[in-house]
Write a structure and sequence with these properties.
The chain has a domain of 334 residues: Tachylectin-2, Chain A (5 Propeller), CATH 2.115.10. The chain is globular. The longest helix has 18 residues. The strands form eight sheets. Strands 1, 24, 28, 29, 30, 31, 32 and 33 form an eight-stranded antiparallel sheet that branches. A hairpin with a 6-residue loop joins β21 and β22. The protein has six helices and 33 strands. By secondary structure, the protein is mainly beta.
């Protein structure tokens, strides 16, 4: 480009050699100064949050088009073309049916959103015009006229041939009288045509037909995981050509159950296959959805199981299992989050994975905000998620000098308080966290003086090992991200300790 510019006719004809040399010299100097400088040691950089966490000011029914990241409960997500589509239970903060009717807001029929960047979400509306009649009839007949007032936990499957399937459940709260149905469309935005029941349960069933998650394995067989504290989580084979149960009235086999399953909550299975490891990961939610809700994970070599936990235990045994990935938490400068579970896990088609789940604002647990986190797999082959919500921060690598500074760290652990629960949920009037149920942060310093002694960074693999209180924790995955509490872009880590509890960290100074 430079040679062409100097020999252009207008330059050649109107400049002598001395003029040309001056021009050439000035271009060289400008080019040198335009080269990227050697990067300084990283420090957190101020960056505003994409949106506020407290949305009470726009919670009214007339503002439904502004609910892009708000009123999110039980999300599932898939990428189709240039958009990520998200579907969720129609749970609404301070739901007002009169105001909803006046503003033509159809309560209870599956919320739909879409995004191109996983940060800015457009609220599309509702998937169905009504609760499917067949589901209503089943639930009300088997539950003595109760239930069937909402649609829960939708899950969309892209069949890859221009057909999309949307699984959903209708139930009577506190009972295992439930119905998992499926509808089809030729667009992820609908319109959806009902195709019938996949699994139905009643009070005589060992399980509960809620919270579907569907996967097709490497052999082309299709499986649906579902269930709750009523008997645990089950897996049933589907017919890929219809999307319904392969065998009529088949309810499947048990894959996971908690020790005190009649009281302790277990629900919301989410099944994925991790391409790099070839493992099937089964995510599960423990505890009450409004307070100590937390995500656990197990893995298997086959989509239908058996699944084992961090300690090699079969999760169908009556054991509380690990790893634990999310739980109620609070960093400084923020009230914190509760109810951090019922996750949807998905990929971007380029090998990057994400987890979406609800987060309930600790000041008012009725406020349900989308939490969407990057998901990583540790060197030992276990999923972990970022300590902070995804905000579009670009990937980059760090060196050991970038890690020196003040860190805020959270040890994500299970609740230490035994609650009296009913139907796996907290009793009315007990919706606040108690002492010992949440996870708070503490400050830890990484200094160059201690580098190689109490901490060590593998820059080639972006893996940190450090000692906290005499405990060595290895395999912490370093990555860039957004600090929502301090409104900065910073460096983060996530990983597991030796007992399968998540450890989160962010550099704050």
């Amino acid at each position: 480009m430079l040679a062409n510019w100097i020999t252009a006719p207008e330059i050649y004809n109107n400049s002598n050699l001395f003029d040309i040399m001056k021009i050439f010299s000035s271009i060289c100097v400008a080019t040198i100064f335009a080269l990227p400088a050697v990067a300084d040691t990283f420090s957190p950089v101020s960056s505003p949050n994409p949106w506020a966490d407290d949305y009470s000011a726009i919670a009214g029914m007339r503002n439904w088009k502004s609910w892009g990241t708000y009123n999110v409960h039980d999300p599932s997500c898939r990428k189709v073309g240039e958009y990520y589509y998200m579907y969720s239970t129609d749970a609404i903060y301070r739901e007002n049916r009169k105001e909803a009717h006046e503003n033509n807001v159809p309560l209870g029929y599956i919320q739909m959103r879409r995004s191109k960047d996983l940060v800015n979400w457009e609220f599309l509306g509702w998937a169905f015009p009504e609760i499917p009649a067949e589901a209503v009839a089943w639930v009300k007949e088997k539950a003595e006229g109760k239930g069937a007032t909402n649609i829960w936990a939708p899950y969309m499957v892209d069949c890859g041939n221009g057909v999309f399937r949307l699984y959903y459940c209708v139930s009577a709260f506190g009972m295992n009288t439930s119905y998992i149905g499926m509808a089809e469309a030729h667009s992820p935005e609908g319109p959806w045509i009902q195709k019938g029941a996949v699994v139905r349960t009643d009070k005589s069933s060992a399980m509960n037909a809620i919270d579907p998650s569907v996967i097709t394995d490497n052999d082309g067989r299709q499986w649906m995981h579902y269930g709750s504290y009523f008997g645990g989580l089950y897996c049933v084979e589907l017919d890929p050509s219809t999307g319904l149960a392969k065998k009529a009235d088949d309810q499947g086999h048990l894959v996971a159950r908690r020790a005190n399953w009649k009281k302790d909550n277990l629900e919301a299975p989410e099944i994925i296959r991790h391409e790099a490891t070839g493992k099937y990961f089964l995510f599960q939610s423990y505890e009450p959805l409004m307070t100590t809700y937390n995500v656990r994970v197990a893995r298997a070599d086959r989509a239908e199981g058996p699944f084992v936990d961090f300690n090699g235990l079969n999760v169908s045994d009556t054991t509380n299992n690990f790893p634990i990935l999310t739980a109620p938490y609070s960093f400084d400068n923020h009230p914190g989050w509760v109810g951090t579970a019922h996750c949807g896990v998905f990929d971007d088609g380029e090998g990057n994975y994400f987890m979406a789940h609800q987060g309930r604002y600790a000041k008012d647990s009725g406020l349900m905000v989308l939490h969407l986190r990057q998901l990583f797999v540790t060197p030992d082959g276990w999923p972990v998620v970022s300590p902070e919500r995804f905000a579009g921060v670009k990937p980059r690598n760090f060196n050991s000098a970038d890690l020196c500074g003040e860190w805020e760290i959270i040890r994500v652990t299970e609740p230490r308080v035994e609650r009296n629960l009913e139907a796996g949920q907290i009793l009315w009037g007990e919706g606040d966290l108690r002492e010992g149920e949440g996870n708070r942060s503490f400050i830890h310093q990484l200094t160059e003086k201690e580098n190689g002694k109490t901490w060590n960074f593998d820059s080639a693999n972006q893996i940190l090992s450090l000692t906290i209180g005499g405990e060595k924790i290895s395999g912490l995955m370093i990555h860039p991200g957004h600090d929502w509490e301090r409104e900065t872009d910073t460096v983060l880590f996530t990983g597991l300790d030796a007992s399968g509890r998540t450890v989160w960290g962010k550099r704050v100074k």
